[in-house]
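We examine the record.

___
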Amino acid sequence: LQWLLDNYETAEGVSLPRSTLYNHYLRHCQEHKLDPVNAASFGKLIRSIFMGLRTRRLGTRGNSKYHYYGIRVKPDSPLNRLQEDMQYMAMRQQPMQQKQ
C-alpha cells in the first residue's frame, strides 16, 4: 500500500496502462523479495486506494489495452527513471531505418 502511495497519484486527464502498473509492482516485489498478488487482486487493491479510478480501453482495433484513467506516476518517483530507461532500450533495439 505504501509503495503505491509513494509512487502514484490521482490526476485528471491522464491514463496509465494497467499492465505497466502491474509490471512496476512485480518489479518492486522481486527487488524486495515479496510474494506478489495476482493481477485481479492488484486491481482491487488499486481501486481501494485510488477512489474514483476509471478504466478505459485505448488503442486501435485489435491492439487495444486497458488503461487506468485518472492516475499517474508521481513526478519525483524513481519509476519515471525506469520508464525512461525502458524507452531508451526499446529505441536502441530498433533497426536504423525505423529510428529515422
The mean pLDDT is 84. The two ends are 42 Å apart (CA to CA).
